[in-house]
Batch of 4 targets.
Target 1
Amino acid sequence: MTIARIVEADRKATQSGKFGTGRWQLEFERSQAQRPDPLTGWNGSGDTRTQVRLSFKTKEDAIAYAEKQGFDYHVVPAAKTSLKIQAYADNFR
């Protein structure tokens, strides 16, 4: 059975704005274990579904797609972080 993970997109560490946040991605769980390639030594598997990421505007759209396709799914919300805003001079108090 195909298992999907629905993840809330979080802003990247190099991103200062809020562009792209609040979007949801549907990713597939790995169905085969990775194994080292005997020639290169890199890990890999025959499962190519982990390379697919579908983007949705809302969580409900992603869930509706997963249910329509018959995927088992679980929802992973983004970690909420809070910033402590302070002046540079506060570092020397």
Note: The chain has one helix and six strands.
Target 2
Amino acid sequence: MNSFNWKRIVVKVGSALIAPNNNGCSSHYLLGIAQFIVKCRAQGIEVVLVSSGSVAAGAHLFKDDTVSVSVKKAMAAAGQTEMMATWDKLFDFPTAQILLTHADLRNRDRYVSVKKTLSTLLENDILPVVNENDTVTTDRLKVGDNDNLSAMVASASDADALIICSDVDGLYDKNPHEHDDAQLLSWVNEIDDDIYAMAGGATSAVGTGGMKTKVQAAEKATSDGISTFIVNGFTELTFNLLLQGKNPGTHFQPYETPMQEHQHWLTHTSKAQGEVVVEESFEAELKNNTEQLTSADLISVEGNFSVGDTILVRTTDGTKIAKAKSNYSSCLLSFLADQDDKDLPADFQNSTGPIISEKNIAILEDS
């Protein structure tokens, strides 16, 4: 057993498994997943559970035919307790609820706090159950789907593997619900445009994520050295095969050389709060480590951000060069960019430092 040599895994379960009929929680499909988690723990494998389903679990309690944003938030509030109670009944060990928004992950101090909480729970044999806090989140603060959230949690918990439960066996070369000749991809060594082209929209009427978000999650996780599986969560055979060290779905291979932790966080977890547009020549200078961003390279500033926020650095043609922590606010950078006398911003930076520092920048591979 445990021939994958996992020490810690993250299992992501979607709404279609939690509340398949939009009539509250059901343990019908969850029992096999719970047994898998129990067997993993018995083998010494630590488990973090990322569970969607609060809105779907609470929907049956509301009679309003018009589901507004406020009603969905209320559904999440009511359904979250039902969902946690359902999981609790399936385990004979303690669980802990962790509700997150993207603000908890994109802020470095709060992200480190989440890491410590997850680690402490696992050290005490408590199963963390993570979900997005749909009751309080807004468009600006939400991750949006628990596939990508599970990848962020996998990185935060230093997991060896991420297992994403779907309603199909894995990634196919075309939508298996629409094409009888669709072929399952058992292995994916590199996630490129062709792989994304194979990922269609949502196949479930209950969940918010489709195959594309699962591939996005796989890209986040594998770049951090985490093996990622997309599997069919509706069949018990899936979990029996995983326990035997066999691949029941699509296995995305991890990077041989994972990204450094801080650069991975900047690239895949922290969300840019604004943009700085720079001269095209800066791209080559940055990749050759010959220059840090100064006001001489700065053309314009977009969005509102504060000191310490993550920003996107791009050229005038839209090429995304890097994500970085800004040492200046958008207000001050806009002032510096607008100066006709370049001696003023140059003198200012000589005394206060560069706009972004080498230790707080992640060069984007797609640039």
Note: The CA atoms of residues 284 and 290 lie 9 Å apart.
Target 3
Amino acid sequence: MPHPGQKATFLRGILDGLPFVLVSAPFGILFGVLAAEAGLNLFEILSFSLVVVAGAAQFTALQLMMDNAPTIVVLASALAVNLRLVMYSAGLAPHLGRASLKARLAAAYLLVDPVYALSATRYDAEPDMSMARKLAYFFGTAAPVIIGWFSSTLVGAAVGTQIPEAYALDFALPIAFIAMAGPMMRTAAHMAAAFVAVVLALSLAWLPYGTGLLVAGLGGMLTGARVELLQRQRVEA
């Protein structure tokens, strides 16, 4: 039997996730278009999205593939971009860590930026939520986001190069990340990590195959972890 409030919580998650479809859909369409231009067929493009389920990593890998980068560089870059998902998992572990293995595997597959941002915010706002309601909200937010991503990728792949460049669909990428990252800049550790990552990314933009982003991401994470450690030590002192 459904847990009391589980259905309402799932619907709440869907409603909260719907606005992100408006931002991610152009992003997905753009990926489908670029992948088609790169020579991938419809099956390959859809499989790319179904297997990776990570827009930023997909764009990174696709660009490097188009630049004929070595396979190891493509894989390393895509994995580096997705390292943030490890931090997301750690952030949600206190809330979902005791769920069933099946639920955790499904959550791991569906864990993307908007789903994490919405779920983490909701869990912090309602610390007394039951496990059933936490899972319901998580999967509720994931439903429109993931379905929207797959559908928009399929649309982009189908239309291919028919979309005029004047539509400038690439505007969705920076807007999406700003919309998700902005509200999460709640602590000094978050802001320090973002600052160091941005400075390093701009300073190392000259490195080949976008490897500067690897260094920037690592530097940002190390900085954030160090600042958070210093804050904890100060509180405990």
Note: The two ends are 49 Å apart (CA to CA).
Target 4
Amino acid sequence: MNATGALSHHRALERLYASAPVNATFDSRCEILGEGRARIVFTVGTNVYHAAGAAHGTVYFKMLDDAAFYAANTLVTDRFLLTTSFNLHFTKPVKEGKVVAEGKWVSGRKRVFVAEARLVDAEGEEIGRGTGTFMKSRIPLSTLPGYSARTIG
């Protein structure tokens, strides 16, 4: 794919993320940083706390899965990927503030992809990490709301 096509695909993936109904629940945004790299920037608020006063594990999973997923989907321009497994490690509880999930593709270019992500709090400390396996689905990206074939101009 040429540079213009790659940029168009990356911006379309960012629009796809923004259009997902689940993302209206979270103060987050997706940034595609280049082939095989994605970042999810998220603001943790008390609305996602568990009973002991820190972010619930579902928040860790969502951010890490999304960052790894979008990093992997930068390599696939025709199909939506599906998460088939995800291994998650919690390393530190997080309270309110900005959190960043950095995802990067590790291996696979045909049907199955492996990507990892690291979650960092506002102080720059790691609070979690994970590795996911993703598989090409039968769902064309071009049929999904938010993803469009707009060109960069």
Note: The mean pLDDT is 94.
